[in-house]
Design goal:
Length: 244
């Protein structure tokens, strides 16, 4: 079995700020998206690194999970997604670590999924999915022309239990351990995808996403880019570091 970090999902009441930040400022190109029961989702891809997925509720009983999330904390990071080629083996690896997945749905041959609750996944929902095919729908009208290309090269996630989080991402989700100390661990996946785990005590649910980092290979981000990104990121409940 292989598992690859595919995307970071961000929930928001409306998606305009997300399109402006991740598309207009950071150069994200439309990948795919569509309607699902209770919510609409769309993904942008970058020069390297995982994709960003934006989620917004569209009403009805199936929207309750996302409406609860937004009511409790406002816009912000919702989940990590890992795409696997054998979800049965992925679930077996996860259970071998003493973690019981929730929301397991293996009925759809095109999209089989399961989730790890934030209390067992170190402060954030983790979605594990086996996918066959991708929905192809036009890009949203409000998605601006993409800015200069950037790479999404780091997710920094703070955790209370560094050893346990490292085991989960390494043993169950195929992260390659690149560096480790008693305070931090960096894990990578193919395609320039990187998570840095940093130990921090006293976190609610045992963890919290701290920031995400984007770099430009050709030229630095301007002061205007940084100011605009900071404003949009604040509205989206995520801290963005622009480097390079």
């Amino acid at each position: 079995m292989t598992a690859v970090l595919d995307h970071l999902a961000i929930g928001a009441p409306a998606l305009t700020d997300g399109w402006q930040l991740f598309g207009g400022v950071l150069g994200g190109r439309w990948a795919y998206g569509g309607d699902s029961p209770g919510f609409w989702w769309g993904q942008l891809e970058f020069g390297a690194g995982p994709k960003i997925e934006l989620l917004t509720p569209v009403g009805g009983p199936d929207a309750a999970f996302l409406e609860r999330f937004l009511a409790a904390r406002g816009a912000g990071p919702h989940h990590f997604n890992f795409v696997v080629d054998d979800i049965g083996e992925a679930l077996a690896r996860i259970r071998a670590l003493g973690i019981e997945p929730v929301g397991v749905n293996l009925a759809n041959p095109y999209w089989k999924e399961a989730f790890l609750h934030p209390r067992t996944a170190h402060g954030i929902v983790i979605q594990v999915a086996q996918q066959a095919g991708s929905p192809r729908v036009p890009a949203p009208r409000e998605l601006p022309e993409p800015g200069p290309p950037a790479s999404f090269d780091l997710i920094e996630h703070r955790v209370s239990d560094l050893a346990g989080a490292t085991r989960l991402f390494r043993q169950a989700l195929d992260g390659q351990l690149e560096a480790a100390s008693d305070r931090a661990a960096e894990l990578t996946w193919p395609g320039g995808k990187r998570i840095r785990l940093v130990r921090e005590d006293g976190l609610p649910l045992g963890g919290a996403l701290h920031h995400i980092r984007f770099t430009r290979g050709a030229g630095a981000f301007s002061t205007q880019d940084k100011d605009r990104a900071g404003l949009l990121a604040k509205r989206l409940g995520v801290m963005v570091d622009l480097a390079g």
